[in-house]
């Protein structure tokens, strides 16, 4: 089965969406094989989002992602990467409310930055992100 990394971001946790999101996840046939609630520090966010380090929104993204605890999960099912991306909807949660009203970001996100959830964008990103948070030996 394919694996992907899902994160409920600080705004999702603060808004109490964790249980609702987890019900959606399991309702769509994903297994949550690992989960961990953590608070990221600046260094961790800088490293996780290194590909965005030169972007204008990077400092704001670091501030957002360190603003509170997050819930990191490994989701497993056939086609997990693409199916989870589809379920969360577009990056811009404000637009998602109009164009993808059934998506998770439409439900709990706020705008381009505060979009309440993360999903790996490829199987390569998924393995990098999974080993970023979890000990790879036990996630095979
Ligand atoms: P994620 O990687 O979190 O699943 P994504 O792949 O939809 O989201 P990316 O382009 O990888 O989006 O951006 C990573 C995160 O950075 C976004 O989820 C969002 O929180 C923030 N972000 C992206 N673009 C902007 C922007 N233009 N302004 C503010 N924040 C942004």
TrEMBL record:
Organism: Spinacia oleracea
Protein name: Probable nucleoside diphosphate kinase 5
Reaction catalyzed: a ribonucleoside 5'-diphosphate + ATP = a ribonucleoside 5'-triphosphate + ADP; a 2'-deoxyribonucleoside 5'-diphosphate + ATP = a 2'-deoxyribonucleoside 5'-triphosphate + ADP
Phylogenetic placement of the source organism: Eukaryota, Viridiplantae, Streptophyta, Embryophyta, Tracheophyta
Nucleoside diphosphate kinase-like domain: residues covered: 1-140
Binding site for ATP: 9, 57, 85, 91, 105, 115
One function term, GO molecular function aspect: nucleoside diphosphate kinase activity
Family affiliation: Belongs to the NDK family.
Complete-protein stretch covered: 31 to 170 of 174
BP-aspect Gene Ontology terms: CTP biosynthetic process; GTP biosynthetic process; UTP biosynthetic process
Keywords on record: ATP-binding, Kinase, Nucleotide-binding, Signal, Transferase
Keyword Translocase among UniProt keywords: no
Active-site annotation: 118 (pros-phosphohistidine intermediate)
